[in-house]
From TrEMBL:
Compartments, as annotated in UniProt: Cytoplasm
Pathway stated in the Swiss-Prot or TrEMBL entry: Cell wall biogenesis; peptidoglycan biosynthesis
Protein name: UDP-N-acetylenolpyruvoylglucosamine reductase
EC number: 1.3.1.98
Entry-linked NCBIfam families: murB, PRK00046.1
GO biological process: cell division; cell wall organization; peptidoglycan biosynthetic process; regulation of cell shape
Keyword Ubl conjugation: no
Gene for this chain: murB
Main localization, broad class: cytoplasm
Gene Ontology CC annotations of this record: cytosol
Its job: Cell wall formation.
Length: 338
């Protein structure tokens, strides 16, 4: 392992923002990761774990040892007539793993196609899209303690998954490096095509009886039509969570905003698309110098090149304030501010 000083993180975050790590190291195995965590030379140095960088907004340099785990591997560890269990390294690119499952006709995560980031970051955020969340297919998560290098396996229940939440963002924040996860996929899946534009897109593709690949292709087509490619325009995908509001509040808002979409979460809660709220508040396509709100998807804040993380943070606060004034709804960022 080579530890580098004053290392640029610009190519390791999808916003493409300049940030400098005081120290940086890449760990290609659990053994290398444990070695650096237990090294007495670095024991007292603050540590920051950086995966695919698809969910971070750098607003400063990182005065720490930045550890970039790239632990790979997809291993079939068990199967029966209906299911297959796959153990996957945390450094695997999430979309590559989805494509592996699609190619092998393993169902359950095809709706999560083209989500940026790594497998290790996925359970931390409980990533989700088009009616599916990672908690629906995960069995366990493996991690290594940053404090003492001890390995630990977390059951699905111990992960305490919520909407874009997990124990790794709350009680165990900054305490573990997620090195891998075990997923349970279906050999005879029930396809989920009822959320968003999936069914409509399949119809446009002239697909009457969709396969796993058809659903994946439809999701990719939808995402590419709405979301900018980070390789072309810096962004972190959805910047805000879709807020869940009381059913009574939603009913009252519908009286004023008849077109307001909503998805029933429970008898008490309705989920409202944050992108719709932001667009109605007048932000879609807004640009301020090198940063702005994407012209096709108001939920995505972008860096057109040379942008500053603090400027994006300030823009996000302005958007939150305007949505709160117009609708009385508080938006919460899905992106982590650093």
């Amino acid at each position: 392992m080579q530890i580098q000083s004053n290392f640029s993180l610009r190519h390791l975050n999808t916003f493409g923002l300049e940030s400098e790590a005081r120290y940086f190291v890449e760990a290609r195995s659990i053994e290398e990761l444990t070695e650096i965590l237990l090294d007495p030379v670095w024991k007292q140095t603050a540590k920051f774990i950086l995966g695919g960088g698809s969910n971070v907004l750098f607003t400063r340099n990182v005065d720490a040892l930045v550890i970039h785990p790239v632990i790979k591997g997809i291993e079939k560890i068990k199967e029966d007539d209906d299911r297959v269990w796959l153990k996957v390294g945390g450094g695997e690119v999430w979309h590559d793993f989805v494509m592996h499952c699609v190619e092998n006709n393993y169902g359950g995560i095809e709706n999560l196609s083209l989500i940026p980031g790594t497998v290790g970051a996925a359970p931390m955020q409980n990533i989700g899209a088009y009616g599916v969340e990672i908690k629906d297919v995960i069995e366990s998560v493996e991690g290594v303690s940053i404090q003492n290098g001890q390995k630990r396996t977390f059951s699905k229940e111990e992960c305490q998954f919520g909407y874009r939440e997990s124990v790794f963002k709350r009680a165990l924040k900054d305490q573990y490096v997620i090195t891998g996860a075990t997923f349970v996929l279906s050999k005879n899946p029930v396809l989920n095509v009822g959320y968003g534009d999936v069914k409509k897109t399949l119809e446009e593709m002239n697909v009457a009886s969709p396969t796993i690949r058809d659903v994946s292709d439809a999701i990719i087509k939808i995402r590419q039509s709405k979301l900018p490619d980070p390789a072309q325009i810096g962004n972190a995908g959805s910047f805000f969570k879709n807020p869940e509001i009381p059913s009574g509040q939603y009913a009252e808002l519908k009286e004023t905003f008849a077109e307001m979409p909503g998805y029933v979460v429970s008898a008490e809660k309705v989920k409202v698309p944050a992108g719709w709220l932001i667009e109605q508040a007048g932000w879609k396509g807004y640009r301020r110098g090198a940063i702005g709100v994407h012209e096709r998807q108001a939920l995505v804040l972008v860096n057109y090149g040379g942008g500053n993380g603090n400027d994006i943070k300030a823009l996000a606060e302005e958007i939150k304030a305007s949505v709160s004034v117009k609708f009385g709804i508080d938006l919460n960022a899905e992106v982590n501010f650093i």
